[in-house]
Structure formats: C-alpha cells, structure tokens
Structure prediction request, 380 residues.
Amino acid sequence: MQKYLLISNAYPTAEKLYANAFLHRRVKAYAERGLDITVVVITTRVLKDKYYDGVRIKYMDTHEIASHLHTHEYNTVMFHFVNPKMFYGIKTMPQDKRPRIVVWLHGFEAEAWHRRYYNFLGDIKQLDAQLERRDTVYQPQKVFLQDIMTSDEYDISFIYVSEAFKSLYVDPYTEIVPRRYAIIPNIVDERLFPYRKKTAADVKKICSIRPYVSKNYANDITAAVIEQLSRKKYFKELTFNLYGDGPLFDEVTAPLKRFNNVHLHKGFVAQSDISEIHKNHGVFLCPSRHDSQGVSIGEAMASGLVPVSNAIGGIPEFVPEGTGYLAERDHVDEMVQYFDALYQHPKTFLKMSKKAADFIRKKAGVKAVIDKEIEVITGD
Prediction:
C-alpha cells in the first residue's frame, strides 16, 4: 500500500483547535479516498503522540524527521509552511531514495515581510525586530525556496492557493517560477457550511468573524463602515454581530459600543459554531488588506451570505462579479455604497446569495480541491 507523509509546523489538537485547521480537513478527506497519511509536526520539544478526531499526530525535531525518513518508505512527502529545518531530512537522503515531494505555499513563508508593513508601523520595536530578521530569517528562507525550486535533485511540485498569490506575492519574492506547479485553493467544506436559503430580510443582518491580531485583517475598516452606515436613515433596521479576539479587539471596537444594534462577541469562535452564525445572517462584512485566498469569505459564501470585501490579493478569484462586492483597498466609502446597493435591492441580494454558494462549491468545494490535490500527490 502506498504511504504518504505530511510535515507541518502545526496541527489541530483538543487544546489548539485553530492550529492549521485546514490541514485536518485535507487529511480527513485524503483518508476517505484511501490514502494512508502519517502526520508529523516539527518541534524542538519532547512531546508524546497525540490524537485528534481519529488522526495520530507525531512530534519530531529536525534530526528525528531525518531518521524517520531513512527508516520508513513513503511515496510522497508533503510540506505545509516549508522551511529549511523541515526539509533537512530530505536533503540527507541519497538522491535515488528521495520520495516525490509536494510543497504548499500559503503565505508568510513565501513572500517578502514588507508586504505586511502596516502591521509594524504603530510599534517601532516590532519594526526593528522585522528588520533584524530580514537577514537572519527572511533572506535564508528566500535562498532555500530558490534552491528547491531550481534544483534537479528533487521530484518536486508546488501548490499555490491562488493565481494572484503566485503572481503578485511569491514570484516577485523568489524571482523564480518552478517547473512543476498547480493552482489549487484551500478547501471550503460545504459539509461544514451548508447552503441555507436567505430571505429578503436577511440583508439587514450583517456579521464579521475575524481575528483581531494584526492590521491586515482590516477590522478598523469594518468599524469605519459601521460608523458611516450609522448616518443612514435605515441604520436602526440593521443588526451587526462582530466575532473575534486578539490584542486589537478592544481598541477597534470601542467606538461601536454606543450603538445598540452592534453586538460585540469577544472570543474565538469554534469551527462548529460558525455555520450557525452564518445561518442567522445575510451579509458577511470582511474587509482585508492582505489575503492569498480569503477562506472565511468562501465559507460565508457557501452558507449563502453575500460578502462585502476588498479587491486585493487572491480575493477577486473567489468573489467574481455577481457573487459579492469588492471595494478598492481601504476604501470605506465604496464599501458603504456596496452595502447600500444590497439594502436597496433585496432581489439582487437573493440572487447573489445563491450564485455565491454555487460558485464557491465548484471553485473550492471538497471534491474540486481533493481531486486535484490527489492527482498531484500520487502523480497520476
């Protein structure tokens, strides 16, 4: 039986439900297709194996991974958030013994740090820390990616989550287009986010589910949009529910506390609860300053919500015309205009809701994604 190894920097557990949860959905889907997957998380700590939802998770350091690769035979080794330490074991293997390799490129590990410069402008110490890491972390990572993208020593394929992520972020960073690559999005699981038909009244129910950990999540734009909408005659007809947590939550949401129809839910939302939140809303307000795909937007679309976001990064590939509205980056006025259009035309809202759900299932549903990934993983 063919065997496959997945190496990552993190994996969900009962204690850390959000640690690369998208990987768990993949592993479960692979297992349903009959693939024998071993999961390894790289660590410097001594940890016993853990189990999460039927998946066994092994914890190994750099040298333990190398030893494991030398003593176990795998058809393919898969990497998520790849770095030189994770890849070290492959380098130690004789070239004729190396398995097929698949590398997913997701975000920070494959783009220049200054793409998210706005996260550090408010704290000179954070900015200094990033500048210090430029030579010690970011440059070695860039050289590493250039090496594995050009070397003839590996049977290696790369997967980008969107065309825009590849062309706008990774290609300029690495200055290389690898010989073998595929564009395959992260999964938007329609089983977790079933479509529920909306009513015209649902356009008045707006939600946001976002981390409040950095400015690239643009929650300050969400607050600004609500502030501007408060000047509309129909504002009191609307209901807003904002979910999330992080060091910026209190600061960003403080100006909204004066509105009786804005409800603040401080805390991280369990995956199982998100669908229920979607069920009770019609519009997903989700501005962004940096996104390779926008999975949370896709999940909302799958549930039948109409997204209002920004035309940045990979988002436009997943929110085409007629499925949602995308304003220019940091453009509060335009986002308000788009919501106003939804409010004024409820029939259009209902059409967009159904179209959004249909589109995202075809684009990033379980079968669409897993079929393509298994083809790359198995080489068939």
Notes: The chain has two domains: 3-187+366-378, 200-363. Residues 113-121 have pLDDT under 50 and may be disordered. DSSP finds 13 helices and 14 strands in the chain.
